[in-house]
Amino acid sequence: MGIKSIKIKNLLSYDEIHISDIKDINCIIGRNNTGKSNLLKLIRFFYTKLERRDALPPKLNNNYSSYGEISIEYDITRISKIVRGHKNNNNKFFKQIASTLLKQAYYERLSFFLTESKNDKTFTLSLKINNDESVQWSTKDTKTLNIINHLFPYFDIETRHVDLYDWDKLWVLISKLKSFNTEKISNEEIVAFFDSKIGENSKSYSDYINKIKEITKTSKYGYKEKVLNYVKVGLDGQTFQIDGKKLEIQSDGTNSFKYIEIFLSLLISLTRRDYITPIVFIDEPEIGLHPKKSEQLIENLYEIYMSFKKSKEGIEQNKYATPYPNIFMSTHSPNILKSVVKEFGINQQVLHFSMLNENTNIRKMNSTYDDHRFLNIFNDNEARLFFSEFIFFVEGVTEQELFSNKLLTNKFQHLKNIDIYATSDVALKYINPSYSNTAIPYIVLYDADHLFSFDNQNKKFTLKTGKLSIAQVRNKYKYSYIGSSNFQAKRNIDMFLKGLNNTTIQTDSNNINITNIDWHGLINRINKFILSKENYWITSTTIEGCLINEKSLILFKKWMLSEVLGNLNPKNIGNIDEIINSARLSPYLNDTQLLQTCESVLSNNPAIQTLSDQNRLFIRKLKSDLVKLLSRRLNTVFPDDKIQSIVLRLLFCGKTETLTATFNKNFKKIVPVHFATEISNFRNDFTMLGYLTEKTSGWVTKFFDFSINEIEKNSADIKGFHDEFRLIFSELSSILDRLRFR
Fold it and tell me: Can you give the residue ranges of the Endonuclease GajA/Old nuclease/RecF-like AAA domain (predicted)?
């Protein structure tokens, strides 16, 4: 391990942060302007000053304080063991480490009254930035600073600023990753070697060098320059290529991909048998890459990572226990996040950056998962949620279809900033921000039957204890004190439970409508005073009940009639004209014959067929008669508006207030036989409308587009629209209000 932790105080967007337990792979995510790049800037500044180069100091976060500070804690356990090894006693560099870094680390521990663990030795280096722009290190020993810079070199790649056609920065990387004892090699030996190989007993090479020295003076090579020149001599050349081709003829995306890939491969490969542990920060590696190429980048990194990793005790050929570099990746790419989480397991962490009171807030996410089922379904859609502003978890495609409706989002603009995710129990458990430990607000929408079960025999509602458990919620607040919001929540729950236990439910004769309590009002209070605090919300029945209710009944029937007139047309078959002719010449005399004729001639076919004038007029009359029959049958069999709305809800896969549906096995046990028969007959009579009533038929979009257009047509302005919308879709409006998070 290289870095153990980073502390930053009062600099840029950071009031005070502490990133601990740094892993091999550290993925940094968050929205724009949350301070991700500031981490790169501050670590870069720290190392720029470590190399004693000039740089403009970062601004203080709060000018009322006189300074800011960057502290990096380094793990020196391994180098300590190497230095204290008997065989290294005569190594000059190791002696220098022992007399500086290890000595200071020892006194540092004493000064803080810490006991040194046999397995964990650290050294913390701090840089103070004063408000007069001066800087001050926590140690005055320049040798210690040099050693830290040598043992833990820092690199960064700002992908958007990389020169994709000039990779010379890779030579800087190469020069810092290996420790060679260059002091044993003298210039005289090198000159003599080339004289012997080039001049054939003459001194042509040394004469050439001497003439250059007579003409000009050069500064001495530093250690890294020497290493780099020795390395280059051993290679075939110094110009980097991709598959033997020049960089200039490659695409930007290919060059970016290969540059980062080669950089990371060198970083890992060249440090496996050394005591140097580099740190690298890559800002937005996904820039210029196809999403699948971003995934390939991480997969290739994982392959080289694992190719050197020991998997068992003892000696393994070409496998090492050497600590890996610390790699930081700041990304907006769900593909990169997904690949890091799935590939690197416990060797990665995800840091979520957000803003809190105008300062950067950093949370370490729970990004390791024991449940392989979740890892199997963890893909781009799931990873995308970690970048969300607000997550709205729903049960299925119907809810997703509704809340993603384009006309709805245009009227309720805050929906555009919300990610809607149709979840499963497994996915919800791990993506839920409460588990992942992100600062992302969220809410989970459930149907009422996840909380309630109706006992038809005893006429009681009982509470379930599965996905939603009021008992578990109450248990969280049992030690709350009087006057606190939690105590009030506990009181609300107690009052609700008492009322529920003491109430016998009364229903109408069909056992579908609750008559002795305001069911919608009760659900609203449960949501507002109990569940909302826990990031849950329930519908009074199902999402279909939010759309089909007494207030929206007129609009819904109007839409159904428009569907018949607009989208129920002659079947798209070759002999349709003949079939219509036959039907026209044998006119229907009663309702049964009318329905039979409609069944034989009409289907969901938006494209209108080319018909004779007589047949076209016949179809127009046929559809008009069907509309009248549909309206008459509905009003005759189910005369009450409340019952009508529930019946239509049942036909469109919704539920009653007693939480039963036609597709439930117990439906015929709860409702009277005659009512179940009437529902079945109504569905059978109007089978030509069956294309609408399936859960995934698209009826939600059709009805809602129709509704919004109708409300807009009758509204003078946007306020009038929202007032009318709230009146017609009151339950849906409450959900939309709950989704406002700004």
Answer: 1-336
